[in-house]
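#lab-general

N.A. 3:47 PM
ok so I finally got the sequence cleaned up, no stray characters, all 137 residues accounted for. can someone with queue access submit it? mine expired

B.Y. 3:52 PM
send it over

N.A. 3:53 PM
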Amino acid sequence: MRGLLVIGHGSRRDEANAAVRELVGLLAGDPGWDAVEPAYLELVEPGIGAGYAALVGRGCTEIVVHPFFLFAGNHTVHDIPAALTAAGTTFPDTRWTLTAPLGLHPGVLAAVRSRIGQGSGGPGRRASNPTTTSAKG
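B.Y. 4:20 PM
back already:
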């Protein structure tokens, strides 16, 4: 069976953590995944090992891991692979692969252009909530 583990950084702001959970819910309906689980690098549970274990508990032996991060950095290059290696040691009958972070994927570029277009209402305007797309003046 094939599972997807979506890893967020983890935040003290629940809205940031909720975005990871929402993404997991949206991806869970995609064909090709027998199970999809969230995990967080720090501050929030489930951690990476627990998310991996949840997929194994659901019968997954092949786990694709997506770091829901914008760019490659220490977390995506070192910390996440180390946590996955530890989880793989605990479950030796599994294998995992790690995708690249979002980076400058054309979809990300399109989203950036869209946000810039939405925010170009004039000088001195700032969104009151950075998760919203409308500005209050």
